[in-house]
User: What shape does this take?
Amino acid sequence: MKLKALFIAILIIASCKHVDQETVEIKEDENKKLNLIVNSSNVKLEVYNFKAFEKFLNLKDDKVYVINFWATWCAPCVKELPYFEKLNELYNDKNVEVILVSLDFPHLYDSKLKPFIKERKLISKVIALDDVDMNTWIPKVDDKWSGSIPATIIYRNDNKKFFERSFTYEELELEVMRFIN
Amino acid sequence: MKKSIQLVLGALIVFFVSSFVETDTLLGKGYKIGDVAEDFTLKNVDGKMVSLAGYKDAKGFIVVFTCNTCPYAVMYEDRIIALNKKYASKGYPVIAIMPNNINVKPGDNMQAMKKRAEDKGFDFPYLMDEGQNVYPKFGATKTPHVYILKKTNKGNVVKYIGAIDDNYKDASAVKTKYVEHAVDALLVGREVKQKETKAIGCSIKV
Assistant: This one.
């Protein structure tokens, strides 16, 4: 009987420890990535600080990545979004991936950004970059970038091109073609 | 065969020319640190024409390209007002210039600028870059975009280009006040340590 109690006690302690470890792991993970998923109005939004975001600029899996920096308040950005969507639609099966990086203000994620994503039925991957220390991270995206948006990076492995400008669909397609061929 | 070679050659030429044009437009034009900024004469919200030469007692200028319609510029309005309050009396007044094409951004037209200046109580000139000839000379690309000029015998020398500080979201959480540090250094005759900084802003509408 005593043995049984001891056994149960050990089990409880062991399981507690296990739970503890798990929470610690999750916390560490959060600290490392600072990648929280906000979930409201059915739109999930991944929010990154620059350190966590940087991986999207350095994927070396032979895909052509088209990374567009935009915001709902930026009229020329909103104007060219359909071109990125079209590109994503037509070139998705040709090893091209579009990632739309929103620089919207965090306090407007729920009231502006998510409803926008929903209304426009954006298919491309949309993530949010929230990092106030711009002077540190802007040059890491590209040292030529003065900081105005829209801005776009097209890259494949180590081959990269940066654009601080707006695109028409034809211009965008042409640039992507150069990476495919 | 000949035709196909011609085609390939043609395509190559198009490729090189277009990539050249692109880099050309992308490369940073306008003033660099140490350049002498040309004076300008632009219309203020009070209807008067303003030029840097009119500031006889100034030691320099905090030139801010800003506008009504860019959320980043709006977030910095109070800080721009504070800069002028702090530094105009010390010889470094704020000169705000609205660089956007008002046909693209009607919210930045003179009437809207006047209203904004009145509502916020701008005590510095808020000038319209009519014809959009001034901002390209500076090489401004976005709002807000700051150029600090120091008056010298050679003219108004560019001493700092970039952001106001390192936290657009929260003025109280700012760690480094880039513009203040630069002007403080100039006021005591020291070199500006951080001469250029980057920040996200709204592209200037052409």
User: Anything to note?
Assistant: Helices of chain A lie at 2-33, 50-53, 75-91, 109-119, 134-141, 169-180.
